[in-house]
């Protein structure tokens, strides 16, 4: 939605909350439906039961591909930059992407995939990942993409939870200097996954892999079969607005990740609308989102949002610091990127290399910048603004979550007056509220509280896969009739929102959500560990680091060996992304008489702030605190 001024935003916003159904109906009409909906919205936050655009029929890939073919068929949809800058880049026009999606969708059908089947995708950041995602959507199969940094055990848990029938992967992948043995990790996972009948393996690194007869097939061979069948088209499956589109697993405060479920109609409308609105995207602009498709940011803002709007998206296989820390700037210069959407952790990491690499590249194509994943600290905001945006590019600091499907609180580029560190104001149609610990709404400005949303939006999660009660418990039971985000927030005198971080036991490490309970479970699997407690602490680059307090009476006399064993265990159980940055061995943990770990005390110690630990008299053994303080890392 194009917004011409701040006044215009305020008008649209007012109208969107006074008549939300009318507002969203108008937005939905900008998409292509096979059949129009009978009812815009039916909802209650008690069960919860949320239905948008009921009776509507559509296929999201017709909106992302087919509808652009006539006018924009030759426009680049995806520009792919490989990990190794000396390898050729690839450009897929809308026409080419459409054809490849249809081909692979037919290959999936040849392999027995039907509407409603769950498909696990574990792939590197190459165009075939987007093709696999869209091919699933084309035929109504439900994709569950798993980020390449998760271990075999994590993959197995997710495949079992969703009872996936097929896995799509690659032999291997490249990330910076590293080779990722993707197929080998999948093979380890599948030992525990009887539901998987077929594994489709794309050739990327041509690393040796074992291909199991009757189960494993090569992507390229399956495409050849489709070509010999001579039927390149694959008509899109007609989906109900509320049919499941995908599952994406995310961590929470319990040990087990949840499968967040998004549905076809509402998610499409929300991803497309928010992309267009927050970035004020104009056709022809080159847009570069640095996220991985393994996370929601990649789903909504590399694949579905931009493609639904006919945008040109750059997709990058590698990392910002390889072969050197000028890689983003190379890419901006090479493809004349107009919009760069990245994360505070990437900005802070690049900041640490100084400004020479930024200055030696031509970044004059940039007109808009974006940030996502965690509260952006002011230092990083100003560095991004001055050195990358040259003081000329609005920074849209987009606050949202996996469960939200798309941006919730965000500036509108060129429209909303900015404040560093503030996600600013809700997008049209979004109704945030702050509540106190009793669930009472805190009205007025210059206040702080827990952030909730009091009215549905089309992109919200509908359930957690296979466990609706868990969805209700986690998001809809803390406060009556509201969706609880898990974030703390302040609203300043101007009504601007500033997210202050999670208020639950969830860490945000480099913009990725990691549950402390999950990491503790993994540490506790190590044979010499009796108990552990994990908290976050401020980390210069990652935002939050993982600090583990571990009881291990039988540890090796060289503590570092046990430390490394614990890290290896966490890598095996969750994945390298959850490895603790610090492990402190302790003889006990501060517990209340009822046995509850007092994390508040551990958090203070991990933060290096031991001056005021508060009341420790209720502890079972107050002496343990002095020992932990003395041994702090
Ligand atoms: C959590 C959601 C959806 C984006 C990727 C992360 C934090 C995200 C911001 C921001 C302050 C932010 C919140 C949120 N967060 N963006 N712009 N400002 N905090 O998705 O893994 O679902 O994590 O990330 O704490 O609850 P996620």
Label this structure with key terms.
3 domains, ligase, seven-stranded mixed beta sheet, AMP binding, acetate-CoA ligase activity, binds 5'-O-[(S)-butoxy(hydroxy)phosphoryl]adenosine, ATP binding, 23% strand, Rossmann fold, globular, 19 helices, alpha/beta, 633 residues, Ac_CoA_lig, GMP Synthetase, Chain A, domain 3
Short description:
It is built from 19 helices and 30 strands.
Number of strands: 30
CATH topology of the largest domain: Rossmann fold
Give the overall shape, derived from the CA principal axes.
globular
The percent range for strand residues is: 15-25%
Return residue spans where pLDDT drops below 50 for at least 5 consecutive residues. none
- The CATH superfamily of the largest domain appears as ANL, N-terminal domain
Sheet with the most strands, sense and barrel status: 8 strands, mixed
Cα(first) to Cα(last) distance is 50 Å
Describe the fold and architecture:
The chain has 633 residues and is α/β, with parallel strands linked by helices. It has three domains: 365 residues, Rossmann fold (3-Layer(aba) Sandwich), CATH 3.40.50.12780; 54 residues, no CATH class; 125 residues, ANL, C-terminal domain (GMP Synthetase, Chain A, domain 3), CATH 3.30.300. Helices cover 33% and strands 23% of the residues. The protein has an eight-stranded mixed sheet, sandwiched between helices. Strands 5-4-17-16-18-19-20 form a seven-stranded mixed sheet, sandwiched between helices. A hairpin with a 2-residue loop joins strand 9 and strand 10. Helix 4 packs across helix 5 and helix 9 packs across helix 10. The longest helix has 17 residues. The mean pLDDT is 97. Bound molecules: 5'-O-[(S)-butoxy(hydroxy)phosphoryl]adenosine (WT7). The site of 5'-O-[(S)-butoxy(hydroxy)phosphoryl]adenosine has 22 residues, from helix 10, strand 20, strand 24 and strand 25.
């Amino acid at each position: 939605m194009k917004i011409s001024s701040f006044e215009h935003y305020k008008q649209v916003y007012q109208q969107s909350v006074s008549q939300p159904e009318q507002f969203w109906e108008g937005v939905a009409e900008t998409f292509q439906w096979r059949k129009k909906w009978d009812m815009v919205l039916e909802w209650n936050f008690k069960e919860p039961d949320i239905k948008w655009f009921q009776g509507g029929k559509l296929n999201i890939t017709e909106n992302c591909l087919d509808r652009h073919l006539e006018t924009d068929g030759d426009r680049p949809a995806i520009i792919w930059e490989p990990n190794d800058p000396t390898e050729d880049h690839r450009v897929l026009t809308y026409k080419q992407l459409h054809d490849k999606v249809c081909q692979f969708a037919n290959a999936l059908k040849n392999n027995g995939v039907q509407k409603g089947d769950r498909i696990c995708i574990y792939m590197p950041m190459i165009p075939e990942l987007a093709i696999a995602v869209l091919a699933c959507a084309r035929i109504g199969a439900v994709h569950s993409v798993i980020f390449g940094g998760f271990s075999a055990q994590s993959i197995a848990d997710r495949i079992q939870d969703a009872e996936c029938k097929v896995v799509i992967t690659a032999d291997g992948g490249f990330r910076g200097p590293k080779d990722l043995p993707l197929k080998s990790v999948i093979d380890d996972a599948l030992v525990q996954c009887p539901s998987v009948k077929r594994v489709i393996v794309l050739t990327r690194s041509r690393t040796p892999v074992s291909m199991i007869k009757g189960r494993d097939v090569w992507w390229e061979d399956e495409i050849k079969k489709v070509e010999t069948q001579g039927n390149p088209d694959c008509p899109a499956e007609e989906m109900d607005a509320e049919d499941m589109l995908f599952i994406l697993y995310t961590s929470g405060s319990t040990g087990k990740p949840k499968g967040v479920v998004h549905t076809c109609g509402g998610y499409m409308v929300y991803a497309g609308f928010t992309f267009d609105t927050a970035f004020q995207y104009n056709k022809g602009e080159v847009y570069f989102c640095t996220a991985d498709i393994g996370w929601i940011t990649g789903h909504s803002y590399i694949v579905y949002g931009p493609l639904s709007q006919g945008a040109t998206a750059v997709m990058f296989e590698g990392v910002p610091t390889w072969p050197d820390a000028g890689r983003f700037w190379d890419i901006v210069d090479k493809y004349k990127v107009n919009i760069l959407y990245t994360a505070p952790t990437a900005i802070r990491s690049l900041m640490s290399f100084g400004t020479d690499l930024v200055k030696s590249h031509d970044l004059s194509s940039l007109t808009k910048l974006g940030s996502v994943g965690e509260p952006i600290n002011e230092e990083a905001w100003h560095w991004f603004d001055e050195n990358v945006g040259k003081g000329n590019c609005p920074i849209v600091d987009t606050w949202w979550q996996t469960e939200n499907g798309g941006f919730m609180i965000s500036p509108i580029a060129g429209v909303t007056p900015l404040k560093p560190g503030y996600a600013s104001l809700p997008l049209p149609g979004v109704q945030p509220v702050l509540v106190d610990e009793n669930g009472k709404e805190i009205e007025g400005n210059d206040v702080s509280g827990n952030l909730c949303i009091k009215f549905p939006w089309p992109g919200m999660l509908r359930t957690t896969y296979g466990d609706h009660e868990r969805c209700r418990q986690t998001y809809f039971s803390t406060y009556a009739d509201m969706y609880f985000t898990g974030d703390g927030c302040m609203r300043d005198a101007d009504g601007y929102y500033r997210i202050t971080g999670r208020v639950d036991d969830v860490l945000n490490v480099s913009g990725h959500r990691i549950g402390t309970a999950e990491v503790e479970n993994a540490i506790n699997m190590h044979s010499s560990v009796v108990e552990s407690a994990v908290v976050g602490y401020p980390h210069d680059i990652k935002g939050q680091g993982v600090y583990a307090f571990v009881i291990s009476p039988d540890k090796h006399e060289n503590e570092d060996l046990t430390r490394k064993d614990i890290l290896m265990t966490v890598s095996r159980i969750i994945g390298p992304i959850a490895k603790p940055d610090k492990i402190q061995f302790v003889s006990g943990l501060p517990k209340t008489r009822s046995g509850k770990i007092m994390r508040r005390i551990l958090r203070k110690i991990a933060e290096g702030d031991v001056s005021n630990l508060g009341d420790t008299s209720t502890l079972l053994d107050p002496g343990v605190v002095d020992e932990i303080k003395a041994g702090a890392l």
